[in-house]
Prior knowledge:
Layout: H1 11-36, H2 43-55, H3 59-67
Helix pairs in contact: 1-2, 1-3, 2-3
Amino acid sequence: xxxxxxxxxxxxxxxxxxxxxxxxxxxxxxxxxxxxxxxxxxxxxxxxxxxxxxxxxxxxxxxxxxxxxxxxxxxxxxxxx
Length: 81
């Protein structure tokens, strides 16, 4: 029987840690972007998104990023020309 180091984290521990960091990071990013976009949303829309982002880990923030993402246009806009 191979010896196992009791101080080394097991693979599932590492996987859960990565998933947790990913979920928290995505939630923080989505909430920050939601706060920036708050002026174009009603209060109920913003509250609904906050609930989705916080209660549906990983999927909720990804939904916000996919649904409400405005791509950055390259080059100058027509107003600048």
